[in-house]
Amino acid sequence: MSELWSRLRRELRNPLFRNGYALMANTAITATLGMGYWLLAAHYYTPEEFGRGQAVITAMRLFASLTALGLVGALARFLPLAGRRIPELILRGYGLAAVTGGVAALGFLLTLPVWGQTYSVLGGFGPGLFFLVSVLVWAVFTLQDVVLTGLRAATWVPLNNFVFGLVKMGLLIALAGALPNGGIFTSWMVPTAAALIPVNWLIFGVVVPRHMKKTETVQRPPRLREIGRFLAGDFPGTLSILAIVYLVPVLVATHVGEATFGRFSVAHTLASMIELLAMNMAVSLTVEGSFDQARLAEHCRRALRRAYMITVPIIATAIAGAPLILAIFGSGFAEEGTTLLRLMALAVLPRVLIEVYLSSLRARSEARKLAIVQIGLAVMVIGAMLELFPSAGVNAVGWAMLLSESLMALLIFRSLRKILTGDGIRQRAVTQGSSGAA
After folding, report:
1. Which of 177, 193, 219 finishes a domain?
2. How far is CA 114 from CA 233, 246, 254, 358, in A?
3. Closest by alpha carbon to 115, among 6, 253, 5?
């Protein structure tokens, strides 16, 4: 036991593992509290309001993440060594994400009839304005975790989301009687807005000054042109991943009833949490790879091992226990969501390989390859889902994820193997050196 504890302490001194484990702990906390939140929602609200709340939250996160998700890779790549430009980059990121998300949300509200009956609840000035403000708030909220990770302070992320989750659950119960229609969305967004002030005080008042002091000897403030080139290559691909994460559920919501979408969304959310575990270690890999590209192969191997060590038991549990897990919400959830949860959980196995590969490309600023992989994956997932939906229903999402991500993992495996062995990194260094000499 003492040997295991000593090993864990050694690993936590490594920023790659410390940040990765912190983000995985955050995912575990978010998943646990999220499950509790939706259990309470299923108990206190009608099936129709349950599904409606899920659908509106999904749409809000879609528009809020349009640019916020696109900035994740850029902030993880450039923020660690940005030095005096760190506050500027953070504020520019907040502003860009909020403006882009707001414009997209406004377009959504102006075309509301196109999106089906489920979203008609947002009609009218009051509900529309609340939705629009919620998009702006969530855009900033999303980037806070990325900023803390990029500044090697990811250990604050689980605490932030733990408090946020508890407050959200308390408000959900409090609003059940006073606001039976709209209480779910309101309970989700009010704590989010309240969290912006203390977390950003922590970021700008404590974390940023401390990080700038620690990295003053290795700072390489990026030029806006350099960041722009990276975003130009990374952003289209990131939008593609956004389509998989958020657009797919919105498309499902436009084709099924509110109660059916609620049952679909629970299975989809639980499976997405498992997938997020793979992405957590990958984000930490991007940060550490930016600091020391000479050790990128070593970091990739370590990240891959740890990601599988943690996700494989969870995947096995989800596959074996899917009916029991979903039955907690009600018999209808188990009947309609078991196959979907199993398929999406199984799809995480190839997704780990893809995420480690993508993070290694981000660390080396290979934006073109990033875009090709991400766009290709999105095209395969959405195309397969649309093709299978008439015959498989909501399970088409699970089949599309499993088949598409398995195929993409096979396509990138040879390149990933070169990175893991260090051959690809050495070859790229020789190529860059020859170009520089020329």
Report:
1. 219
2. 31, 18, 9, 35
3. 253
Question: 161: Cβ–Cβ under 8 A, 6 or more apart, which residues?
Answer: 26, 29, 30, 33, 145
Question: Minimal CA–CA distance to 77: which of 64, 100, 66, 93?
Answer: 93
Kindly provide the b/e burial profile for residues 73-101, where b requires at least 16 CB atoms within 10 angstroms of the residue's own CB.
bbbbbbbbbbeebbeebbeebbebbbebb
Please classify residue 422 by burial: count the beta carbons closer than 10 Å to its beta carbon, then call 0-12 exposed, 13-18 middle and 19+ buried: middle
**Does a structural domain hold residue 20?**
no
Spatial separation of the C-alpha atoms in residues 383 and 388, rounded to whole Å: 9
Does pLDDT of 111 surpass 80?
Answer: yes
The token pair that represents 33 in the structure block: 């509290």
Write out the H or E segment, with its range, that includes residue 213. Answer: helix 208-214
The total of structural domains in the chain comes to: 2
Q: Are residues 110 and 163 in the same domain?
A: yes
Chain-centroid distance of CA 357 in Å reads 16
How confident is the model over 1-52, as pLDDT tens digits? 556 556 555 555 555 555 556 666 766 777 788 888 988 998 899 989 999 9
Range of the domain at 84: 45-219
H or E element: which one contains 128?
helix 125-150
Same-domain check for residues 63 and 146: yes
* Cα(32)–Cα(100) distance, integer angstroms: 31
Residue 7 lies in a domain: no
Asked if 76 and 361 touch (Cβ cutoff 8 Å), the reply is no
pTM: 0.76
- Residues 346 and 402 grouped into a single domain: yes
- Please choose, from the candidates 150, 22, 137, 136, the residue with its C-alpha nearest in 3D space to the C-alpha of residue 86: 150
Of residues 322, 321, 320, 349, the one with CA closest to residue 267: 322
Q: Residue 201's Cα: distance from chain center in Å? A: 23
Choosing from 178, 201, 219, the residue where a domain stops is 219
Nearest to 185 by CA among 140, 134, 250, 136: 134
The amino acid present at 190, given as its one-letter code, is V
